[in-house]
Specification:
It contains one helix and ten strands, in the order αββββββββββ. By secondary structure, it is mainly β. The protein has an eight-stranded antiparallel beta barrel. The chain is globular, with a radius of gyration of 21 Å. The termini are far apart.
């Protein structure tokens, strides 16, 4: 009994004697990350649905929504309307220049905060990690049997807000 108490006391003393640099670092945050909403600030560079160019009214914020089931949606807004590029987050793969690529299965549409329409698509969103503190691009292109969709957004390197 005394030996186990000594071993425990020695272990505790050793842990507290470790330099701060030896303490395990918290893992870097990933993007799009755990379920919740992340809003990025920056510049909407392009938003086009079929032949309709909505870039002029495109808001300079982009939302990334990750659901508990792993679904990831990048939502662009223009003149009160929303266009979401959606895919299964488990399909995210590394891409060139430190970016990642999300295969898309749906484009969702809506007005205000309500997403009401869905179109099956094939395409990709390519994006960097905004947690790195550097400007990144999020570029989405998708095609359905009847239409094409393009969204491009460049961040200023800062997160606007994180929510659940």
């Amino acid at each position: 009994m005394k030996l186990s108490a000594l071993v425990a006391a020695g272990f505790v003393a050793a842990v507290f004697a470790l330099p701060a640099s030896a303490a395990p670092a918290s893992p870097p945050e990933t993007f799009p990350g755990a379920p919740g909403v992340i809003t990025l600030s920056g510049k909407c560079a392009k938003l086009v649905v079929a032949k309709f160019d909505a870039t002029k009214g495109c808001k300079n914020e982009l939302a990334s929504v990750t659901l508990a089931n792993g679904s990831v949606t990048f939502i662009f807004t223009s003149d009160g309307k929303a266009l979401g590029f959606q895919g299964d987050g488990s399909g995210i793969k590394p891409a060139s220049n430190g970016n990642a690529r999300l295969p898309l299965s749906l484009v969702t549409t809506g007005v205000g905060n309500r997403m009401t329409g869905q179109v099956k698509v094939a395409g990709f969103c390519t994006f960097g990690n905004p947690y790195g503190g550097k400007p990144i691009a999020i570029e989405c292109t998708a095609e359905s049997k009847d239409s094409s969709f393009t969204g491009s957004f460049r961040t200023g390197g800062k997160l606007v807000k994180k929510g659940k």
